[in-house]
Amino acid sequence: MTTLAIRPATPADIPAIAAIYSHAVLHGTASWEIEPPDEAEMLRRFEAVLAGGYPYLAATRDGDVLGYAYAGAYRPRPAYRATVENSIYIAPTAQGLGLGSLLLAALIASCTERGFRQMIAVIGDGTGASLGSRRLHEKAGFRLIGVAERVGFKHGRWLDQMLMQKELGEGDRTPPGF
């Protein structure tokens, strides 16, 4: 029996996470890095996310990591502290299974529970190769708030960057509790 699960990621997941991200860096436009970071760097980033009080999740099937998602600071300045940016990556062999939706829903719930009020999705090439990411976020209630045109260059072409936003919890109706 195949069991899909969303759970907090652990350091033991880093090799699988690094492999998933490496493929995204080398072949996609979701990340605008050009060279994939090694496992040590991915572990450092993982630990920084957790140290900041943000969630980092893994999607698994029968114990194998097929995708991951995390939230982090949208911007480093203190006035942005109630706003997070999300990131979701799915292994190429697991795309189309609905893991992105499961991860995003769990990430939204975790960020809401932690008191965050806004979530921003920064989608690389949201009108082209990353159209699936745009649709995923639309289904989860995100709205388009802007497109920065031709601000990245990767794989021999100029890329647009799309920003989408979703209110979490009480949103802007009250001040954040932290």
**Contiguous runs where pLDDT drops below 50 for at least 5 residues:** none
Number of strands: 7
Order of helices and strands: EHHEEEHEHEE
Class from helix and strand fractions: alpha+beta
Give the N-to-C terminal Cα separation: 43 Å
What fraction of the residues are assigned to beta strands by DSSP?
25-35%
Which strands sit side by side, in order, in the main sheet? 1-2-3-4-5-7-6
CATH class: Alpha Beta
Number of H- or I-type helical stretches: 4
Domain module tally: 1
Mean pLDDT: 94
Identify the overall geometry. Answer: globular
The largest pleated sheet is described as: 7 strands, mixed
User: What is the gyration radius calculated from CA atoms?
Assistant: 16 Å
Give a quick precis of the structure.
With 178 residues, this protein is an alpha+beta fold. The protein has four helices and seven strands. α1 (14-27) packs across α2.
Can you describe this structure?
Strand 6 (143-154) and strand 7 (157-167) form a beta hairpin. A seven-stranded mixed beta sheet has the order 1-2-3-4-5-7-6. Helix 1 packs across helix 2 (39-51). It contains four helices and seven strands; from the N terminus they run βααβββαβαββ. With 178 residues, it is of the alpha+beta class. The chain has a single domain (4-167), classed as 3-Layer(aba) Sandwich (Aminopeptidase). Helix content is 29%, strand content 33%.
Features:
7-stranded mixed β-sheet, Aminopeptidase, 4 helices, alpha+beta, 178 residues
